Amino acid sequence: MPLNGDPNYQGPGWGQQPFPCKAYHRNVTHHSPDATWYTGSTVTFQIYDSTNTTGAGMHDPGAAHSGGSCQASFSYDNGETWIVVQSWEGNCVRVRKGQEGKLTNSYDIDQDYSFDIPASLPGGDAVIFAWTWLNSSGNREFYMSCSPIRLVAVRSLTEIPSGHPMYIANLQENPETPDSQNAAWSRCYVPQNVWIRYPQRYKGINPPIVANPLPDNSQIRFLELGDDGGLCGSDNKERVRALALQSS
Predict the structure, then answer these.
(1) Which residues of 52-61 are buried (b: 16+ CB within 10 A; e: fewer)?
(2) Which of the pair, 14 or 144, is modelled with greater confidence?
(3) What is the dotted CATH code of the domain comprising 21-247?
(4) Under a CB-based contact definition with an 8 Å cutoff, are residues 82 and 74 in contact?
(5) 143-152 and 124-135 as β-strands: parallel, antiparallel, unpaired?
(6) What's the rounded Cα separation, in Å, for the pair 108 and 95?
(7) What Gene Ontology terms describe what this protein does at the molecular function level (predicted)?
């Protein structure tokens, strides 16, 4: 399933904001689902460079930003809450084979990502699937692309699943505030040239998929993120409300 919405869209003065989905998520129940997925099954989605909307292949050199780490999440309540199903720690998006550990914008041609949907999750006719990416090199950004899906399950939705919130970094509540004056910025911030390992509470339902070890001469390093006390999570309602102000 390809993702809808340009993850590189730069809203006026807000970069990758407003959160979530740069407001593409609004009124998702009015859109036909882009895919029907089944709990207990393995699904695959594809990432395409925004310069190529055909899905024929990756643009070269594109903007792989030396890889990074990314997550796949679901929302059952039109973007109010999120539950991470799968994390990829390192080399997401994938750089060209042989370029791992280098500062590069070259994509690998294979940008298919597969993960298991736990059988324990409920179904829903208006579920939002989100892919989020914290790039390694380049500007400090938080990429997010969303699509409506139909999720078929043995049990229907009776309550919103909780736990495993999304990790949100490199976004400011007010784009006019300098980084140095933003209280959350230094805590919810991913530095240059790293592949992060998410804090435990954000890793997701499934065990993370971890990239191969980096070569000894790597220009990139793995960074283990410590406990943030819940500050950077999608369940931090106060911060998320501030990040979403421009979508109202």
Answers:
(1) eeeeeebeee
(2) 144
(3) 2.70.50.70
(4) yes
(5) antiparallel
(6) 5
(7) monooxygenase activity
DSSP state letter for 70? E
- pTM, 2 dp: 0.87
CA atoms lying within 13 Å on the CB side of residue 197: 13
Please count the CA atoms within 13 angstroms of the CA of 196 that sit on its side-chain side: 24
Distance, CA of 25 to CA of 21 (rounded, Å) = 6
Tell me phi and psi for residue 86, to 5 degrees: -145, 140
CA angle 22, 140, 24 (to 5 degrees): 10
- The Cα 183–Cα 90 span in angstroms is 27
Closest of 131, 50, 41 to residue 84, by C-alpha: 131
Percent of the chain at pLDDT exceeding 90: 52
- Show Cβ contacts of residue 68 under 8 Å, excluding neighbours closer than 6 positions: 90, 92, 93, 133, 134, 135, 136, 195, 196
Residue with tokens 């550990």: 101
For residue 242, give the 3-state DSSP assignment: helix
Gap between the Cα atoms of 117 and 73, Å rounded: 10
Q: Which of 163, 159, 175, 176 is nearest to 233 (CA)?
A: 163
